Predict the structure.
Amino acid sequence: MLRDPFGRSIDYVRVSVTDRCDLRCTYCLPKKFNSFKEPEEWLRFEEIERIVRGFAALGTRRIRLTGGEPLVRHNLPDLAQRLAAVAGIEDLSLSTNATRLNKTAVALKHAGITRINVSLDSLHAERFAAITGGKLAKVIAGLMAAKAAGFTPIKINMVVMREVNADEVEAMVDFCIEHDFTLRLIETMPIGEPGRDAVNKYISLQEIKARLERRYSLIPGLMPGGGPARYVQVAGTDLRIGFITPMSQHFCASCNRVRLSVDGTLYLCLGQNDVYPLREHLRRGISDAELQQHIITAIGHKPERHEFNERPQQIVRFMAQTGG
Ligand code: SAM
């Protein structure tokens, strides 16, 4: 098993397959940003598979494909199929904005993706466009295609912002009850300039939870996930709501993950600058044993915790570049 210097077992890797995205969420990427990695810098599918094999040999059981927008990368189902077949990988999931899910949901299901998380910050088309620059109708079509393809659970990720969409949380709760989705509410993080700007709209989820408690009866403690969300169930329904609170109540003590970016850099913490480049080693032709040794060395550099509150200026890269 991979253990970091703080005794945490690292068994989850978020694999970014691209830093590009077809949306420009206000809190994630600047509108005009265009300095993306070039194709020769991207890990090829066989390289991603090799790194995942290396992690799996060291005890990793869960992989999530992310980005940027992962469905912008051509032939993603082919990669999913390769990773689903890696010995030891038990859970292969996808984070997407769902704009392209309408066309790919069935292929992704066949390829072995088990679970899907979809970003959705508003159910109002105009507001959705203002936050993301995209079309709500496409996302809803993608979500419904994922449901029809049989993905379960489907989790909705909503970044909650004061004076932007915080008034919509109850509507999102009702939407998720109606469609049998799980809802996860997320606090804005100061990642890159857009993230720092969004932190001006920060609202603590403790406040949102107190508001929901006045309208719904929330049963705590259900659905222990492998991740940071603390879940409650809405009594009388199947709906689970997860609260992801990096700012108001951080969860670093139970961190179990690292992130692999599209250019083969391991990011050891979302909120720190500690990285370990793997691609240059891979392309030098190292053996599997050497690759595993590099992974072990990298995990040895995992920091204890983020410092989003103490040092909000410190992360200049954008979320889409790290692999959210
Ligand atoms: N495009 C995919 C998606 O929409 O899920 C995957 C990548 S996206 C960067 C992953 C998640 O990061 C999304 O749910 C997005 O809302 C969230 N995110 C991006 N920037 C953020 C920030 N500054 N604070 C909190 N969440 C952020």
Notes: The chain has a mean pLDDT of 95. Residues 21, 25, 27-28, 66-67, 69, 95-97, 119, 157, 159, 186, 188-189, 191, 195, 198, 319-320, 324 surround S-adenosylmethionine (CB under 6 Å). Residues 12-322 form a domain with the TIM Barrel fold (CATH 3.20.20.70).
